[in-house]
Amino acid sequence: MKRAILWTLWICIAVVGGIGIVERLISGHDLAGYTSYVPWGLWVATYIYFIGLSAGAFLLSSMVYVFKVRRLERIAKLSLFVAVITLVMALLTILFDIGHMERFFFVYIHPQFHSMMAWMVWLYTAYFLLLLGEMYFALRRDVVAAATDGGSGHRVVSFLARGRTKPLSTAEVERDDRALRVLGTIGVPLAIAFHGGVGALFGTVAARVVWHSPIYPILFLTGALVSGGALMTFVVAFLWPRRDRDWRELIVYLGRIVLGLVLLDVLLEWAEYSIPLWYGVGSEVEQLKNMLFGSYWYVFWIFHVAMGVIIPVYLLVRYRGPRVIGVASALVAASYLAVRLNLVIPGLVTPELKGLETAYLSDRLSYTYLPTLFEWQVVIGVAALGTALFYLGYRHLPLVRESGTGIGGIAS
Amino acid sequence: MGELQPEGATEPTQEVDESASRRDFIAKVGSAVFGGVVLAGIGLAQRGATDVLATGVASATDGPAPPFHIATQASEDVLIKMQRELSRALAKTMDQRRWGMVIDTRKCIGCSACTVGCVMENKLPPGVVYRPVLQTEVGTYPDVTRKFIPRPCMHCDNPPCVPVCPVGATGKRSDGIVYIDYDRCIGCRYCITACPYQARTFDFGGKWTDGAAGGSDGALALESGREYQDPPNFEYGESWTRPRDGVLAGTAPHSPIGNARKCHFCAHRLAEGMLPMCVSTCVGRATFFGDLNDPESLVSELAAGANATRLKEDMGTEPKVYYLA
Lengths: 412, 325
Ligand code: SF4
Ligand code: SF4
Hints:
The structure holds two protein chains of two kinds. Chain A has helices at 2-27, 42-65, 76-97, 106-109, 116-149, 154-161, 170-203, 215-239, 245-277, 285-293, 297-318, 322-344, 356-359, 373-396. By secondary structure, chain A is mostly helical. Chain A has one domain: Up-down Bundle (Formate dehydrogenase/DMSO reductase fold). In chain A, helix 2 runs antiparallel to helix 7, helix 2 (42-65) packs across helix 12 (322-344) and helix 8 packs antiparallel against helix 9. Chain B is of the alpha+beta class. Chain B folds into two domains: 1-76, no CATH class; 77-324, Alpha-Beta Plaits (2-Layer Sandwich). Helices cover 25% and strands 12% of the residues of chain B. Chain B contains nine helices and ten strands. In chain B, the strands form four sheets. Chain B has a four-stranded mixed beta sheet with strand order 8-1-10-9. In chain B, strands 2-3 form a two-stranded antiparallel sheet. Chain B has a two-stranded antiparallel ribbon with strand order 4-5. In chain B, a hairpin with a 6-residue loop joins strand 2 (133-138) and strand 3. The longest helix of chain B has 22 residues, at 25-46. Chain B is globular. Residues 1-52 and 54-63 of chain B have low confidence and may be disordered. Chains A and B meet through helix 1, helix 5 and helix 13 of A and strand 2, helix 5 and strand 6 of B. One iron/sulfur cluster binds at residues 164-165, 167, 169-170, 180, 185-191, 259-260 of chain B.
């Protein structure tokens, strides 16, 4: 019954989203609501949201592979996989956002070393390859084991094991662990660089006073940790197959981490807004006030402050139950899109020159922006695709299997 | 009026003198309109498919020869003078000239003839604009002034829009014009966010005929709309059309749809010896254009005046558009 409901839900969002994506391919940007004056909208915000989830989930896995935090061992593979899926979702979203999708590879064949955006693309390409490598070494032992003992997804793992039935020797497992450590060690600075780099992409733009702040890359990084950590907590709380005591403890532990990160994020946000706003003079004041008290005040106060901070913090402080922690984390993870929107849009909604707003009238020369249904559809379509990919992996790959050898499995 | 004869070269240059110009106003308007038409016509006749991007044209050798020499006249229109200066500048190599613009806000009457001229010249679709005229009101009744500030691309000498581009689709030519390569641009819109003057707009693919036709005259309206819309424009010396929707028009649109666009000082007209369209159509004779490297040029003189300012000077973008206030 529950399954049927979930399937129906998924089919609904897949259809709604699929239509959006097809429309995007046929009509381009025609149906999108952003303008030449607010040139980046929901898709860019969603992109940095997804990519933040990816970086966050990845850094969580690195806690195991690089920093050997034993308590997180059992979810390291799953975190890696979530990092791959959310990265794919991010790349798809930003692909749909550019005007000429067919030219995306120009970023590789016409390298521009001064462009933050070019760096971002190269870095996440490297990150993508690295993730695939880590997946290989992290899953190899379990793929082989799963291929021999059958069970769900048998055909997929057998294919991946390429006929190998002999379990990996200790030496092989150790070699894989070493490879994981090396890749993870490269991956940590890489993830910091590319996600900090996404923040720098905005922060380096001197023309946009709200963006042009050294705190932007830092905010992006803490954002990645908060949202990615919360997403993983939610996933483990609701999808982990073995609800034993270890699992319970793990959830409580993850809940603590999320709580700490949310509070750290609040501190940085306080710095971000209070400094430019305090005396009420300066060029950012109007834009920030607009964000806090303008017509889209609810994005900040309801979606972010209430749903993303107050309620989850209350739940996380008050309760120990895995489900409550899972729900609180889901709230943090989902509502983080509001934070991402507020990083992108408020910097764009006031004219750079007085009078521009009325100088030449057109829908595309407007300073007000509300994502259109079509834009949401595309995002929903990407989310549906991501969910499907995750489900396939979850079902067919030994992501939650605990092999009991090496740091990739649980070694208790 | 400006006579078409070999340049005598030694006559003293004509100053833009307020009182003198007022006295000769009528005569000048007449001469300039006529002169402008003649010059534009000659330029048009010479129009070829020259590529005027970074590496292309328009040095003295491979560009078209300056159309003709124009002798100075006692009370000639500034357009004639600028046309003569343009010929002089085009005789130099590309890297020896530095195009610049001066806009006299006291002369601007806020008619938007430059905006419209530009829209026509470059066949700008709805929502794309290169030179809007900002109108602001200062003071309260009865002491009110309306201020008009035409805002082309500033062709910054230190353009923040250029280094952000991830694919090198936008850059500064050796004559100072900041261009966009429509065949390279991926439409990421990063440069649009980076311009402090919001001089760049995105071509969403809108058409003037979109939803335009209705009622009994609908078909006719659509037809005449297309007559305007379908012929190409010639930005950067290439021919750009906007084909009607194909199946994958949204995935791989026909450039410049899906690209960032902005003012290019009419580089394609300059290459043919013509002044930018907004300069030609400026009713108030408020827009001056020429070679800032030429100390004798009108723009050099005006830009050096005490009343010359630039927008957002403090950003360090070094605009090549000056305003007289
Ligand atoms: S005005 Fe804007 S678009 Fe033009 S060169 Fe300067 S920064 Fe670039
Ligand atoms: S929109 Fe085009 S020109 Fe502008 S930064 Fe992106 S690729 Fe470069």
